[in-house]
Structures are given as C-alpha cells and as structure tokens.
Batch of 2 targets.
Target 1
Amino acid sequence: MSTSLINTKLLPFSATAYHKGDFVEVSEQDLLGKWSIVFFYPADFTFVCPTELGDLADHYAQLQEMGVEVYSVSTDTHFTHKAWHDASDTIKKIDFPMIGDPTGKITRNFGVMIEEEGLALRGTFVINPEGEIKVVETHDLGIGRSAKELLRKVQAAQYIATHDGEVCPASWQPGEETLAPSLDLVGKI
C-alpha cells in the first residue's frame, strides 16, 4: 500500500532539462514561489506520451496566464528530449522544461517509478507556491490524461487556496458556486 503525497513537501532534486533550445538546470527550488505541475510520462519516442504532451502544450499559455509552470519528466536524458523535440512536430510545440531523470531519483521521489522497467507511470502532481503537493493523479501506461481536466483541477486548487472555508464540488468550474462545509449541509446534498 502506498502513502499519499497530498500536502507533503517537495523532496530535493537537481536535474538537467531541455527548454527552448537550451539545456538548463532545474531543482525543487525552481518550483517554489509559483504554482507548478510536474508531469511524468514513461518515455520519449512512444505512442500515448506525445498525445499527452501535445495536449498539455496546447493548454500551456492558459496555464502560464494562471501563474503555473509545467515540468515534464521522464527517465530519458535531456539529450533524448532534444532529439525528440527536433524530430517530432507535436513535441516541437512544447515550451515548458522537459526534465531528464536517467537516475530515476525524481521519479522515485514522487512514487511513480516502475522499478522493473526503469520507466515512470503517468503521474501528475500539482504543487502550490509553498512546495506542497495538492493534486496527485497516477495512471497506468495505456491511459492518457486530459490537459483540460488538469486545468480545471489547478483552477480548483488555486480557488480553495485563496478562499478559506470553501470547497469545490464535483465538476466545479470557475464562476460556479462552491460549498462552505457546515453542520447545516450534512445530509442535504
């Protein structure tokens, strides 16, 4: 049985990412002070992964407007990320850092390593500016994720972070009513 990472702090890491034509160093410190998404995927040059990363790239501008940075991570190297970026029209759309984790340290920190294969599960983590994990979503390798649904989850996490005492009901969208948990609501929803 695994332990939930919800509300835990980021563990230290340091890695090299491919980002906008350069290799850059990234650490947990880069995630502090803003909302972040850490988006694990199994491997470059595969099948479901480019569909997910392309979908996320299509929503990246909106996430940036919300003050969110995205970091994709696989156990490939930053060199492989560059080669994939150069070879694939879908991956060329990516403007967020693509972190290489060939040692698997970051992947293990987030509990999504498939040890027998040296690959990451499809894991998505939303992290607040204080470095606390607020959303954890993990999928089996054959199940692709939706950037649109991830965007909604980030909006809900940001909303409750600034509206003490309120919670977002199922399928909540910005502008819709929230709930204020109280004894009066018990059994009435």
Note: The chain has a mean pLDDT of 96.
Target 2
Amino acid sequence: MIFNPIVIDNWSRKPYFEHYLNNVRCTYSMTANIDITLLLSELKHKGIKLYPALIHMITTVVNRHSEFRTCFDSEGRLGYWDSMSPSFTIFHDDDKTFSSIWTSYGEKFNDFYNRYLDDMKMYGSVKQFIAKANEPPNTFPISSIPWVSFTSFNLNVYNEGTFLLPIFTIGKYFHQDKKILLPISGQFHHAVCDGYHASMLYNELQSRADTYKEWLPNI
C-alpha cells in the first residue's frame, strides 16, 4: 500500500485538474450494460457467486489505470495509490438494512474469492453500517441494487467536491436479444478522468467478462 504524490506542476493533466476542481467543480455519471451471458453461465456451473466476481472484475480494471486510483490522502496531498481494494455493501434481507465491508484485493480471483467468503462468514451478519473495521485508505466503494435494471444512476455527494475516486453501483441483470445484460453505473470526478477514461473502463469490463476463462479458477 504505497501512496505516490503527484507534482502538479510536472503533471500533464494540471490544466484539466485545476479547471474541474477549482473553476467548475464537476463530477459525472455513466451507466453501461455489460454482456454477462457466458460469464453468468460459467459462474453458475462452477457454483461461484456473481457479486464477488463483479467486484473483482471492477477492481482489476480500476487497478490498471492510475486515473481511477488518484485522490487526496489524509494529509491533503494529491497522488495515487499503487493498488486499490474494494469496499462494498451487503444487504440484510430480514430488516432491509445494509452494511459495508472490505476485502483485500489480489489479481488471482480464487485467492480474492476465498477472502471474500471468509469476510462474509465473519462479518456478513453484523448489523452495523461499518461491519468490518480498520478499512485501509486505499479502498473505493461498490454497491449493488439488484432489484431494478436501471438505465442511469446518479450519486449526489454533498461535501466539498474533492472525493476523486470512482464509485460504482451494480443493477439487476436482464434478458434482451438472447443476451443477459447487467447495468453498471460509475460516478467519476472530471478533475482526474474524462469520458475517454470512463469509456475505456467499460470496454475493459466487457473484455473481462468475455475472457472469463482466463481468470476464473478451474474447479
């Protein structure tokens, strides 16, 4: 867990960062449908849960691009983490509340999946907003709304507008043209990433879903 400070005067993105942070403070949302037809079939065949597979997919793509790992640290310095881990919500069906837990990321899915299962076993029934304590600073949020197939989703974060990390929301998958599509919404800060970067993220998520044989364990 290493935080790499950015020297703004030597940063090629300096004019864009300063404009969208100081002049026109701007975040934006983007929602895209990911084709998970083959991925979902394989997960069901192997008895692997969809939610952690999606969390791992998103985190893998986030870790490939510094734009999605750029933020201010606890000392107010601008920089980027060498790697990120997911902080995600879980739902309590009995009282319709949710909790937030986190799982350390690893590129090997099987290792991450086992840690996810361990965390769910230990913290999945904890009825607190923060079910698992000691969350490290290099995490980003993921949540799921599996009851509706939304076409767009927008978060309104009422703070100083300096939260630079992406926030992801997963919707309910649906059937269309013999495909199974899953809406994933991302909230991005224009100071650190543009529409191009967000588009590449979704393209890589689709590629990740298409190449599931390369990263899912053979069990």
Note: The helical segments are 14-23, 37-46, 50-62, 109-123, 195-210.
